[in-house]
Sequence to fold (394 residues):
Amino acid sequence: MKQLKTLIVLLLTVAAMASCMKSSSSDITLYDDAAIKAFTLGTVNCYTTVSTADTTYTKKTAYVGSVYRFTIDQIATAEHVDGLDVKARHIYNKDSLPVGSDITHILCTVTTVNNGAATVYEPESEAFFYANDSIDFSRPRLFRVYSSDGTGYSDYVVNVNVHKEKGDEFVWTLMENVPMPDDQPQSLPEGIKQLLGGSTTEQYALSTDNRLMVWNAGENQWTADSLDSDPSLLPTEDCSLVSYPMKYSSETDYVLLVGNRKEQQTGSSAEWTSVVWRKIVDYGRYGQRMPWVYMERETDALYRLPYLKGLNIVSYDDGVLAFGGDYKKIYQSRDNGITWKENSLYKMPEGFDYNATAVTVATDDDNYIWLYCAGTGQVWRGRLNRLGWTDPNN
Fold:
């Protein structure tokens, strides 16, 4: 390779010149290190397809590539790159670039140890690396770093990972041949009208006289749990409970109970309203028992959970989602049940049959949300793309 020979000659010449200068009391020092210590990308163009009612077009944006950090693995392994069998170290980004990123023409910065000289390989050729020359990273690229004294070199394979799908895109699939949950009447303990679920260490239920109960393992029975407000404010219908770990507090769960009850009004009629209760369960060694807290909000308060017949909630993506009513909207709370808003990420599936008489909502360990639709037999499964990523290049 003519360019490679030229490069080696140049390096040896520099080494020889530096050696002569050293004999003349020069401060120039050459090293035998051949390594890359930093790698960053420059500006990256990104192309996305935008659809409106009238047209579809491609939108170009740009972002600073240096915000995506690259890992440098200095352990060499055998690789076959650009027609060469080499033992190479590896440079890659764990956090993939956004979908639509154009990585065929990108500027990058390569920082070497002790001013080693970097080159980039093309099939059957090698050229000096220049920071102002764009590089095609649509395939793995081989970089070679020569020590400043010209005695050795190290190879690096650079992989620039790009997501193949949008992370914040929720995709529903209509499932075939999936059985509906068993709707046979559940056998309940005496005095209990609904089992609600539980936290890590506690189980909860509603009694036939509408008290909030907790299972007392020591006494082997259900006992009334402590409340901070009047029990008449508890929900009476469409009750749903979720429990999830509290952030920044180990051995602590946040338990959220929602449901519907009739407003106490004078006159012949009463309107239904949603209610929200919460409990903090600290099951650490020195944890104290806390009461259920009624999260009171005015009827006309902004972002209050609306009345949704058939209300279901699930914990999902650091928030809580509420389904119910006519199922035209999905509400999300990201502040533990205080406010509830529509989020454009979450929409009911296209093709959802709104003739469903009831919908059971559940989640699984793979971050899927399941909709079991009574009356229509539809079963839907959906997930945010990024919650299913295991390969950084997805």
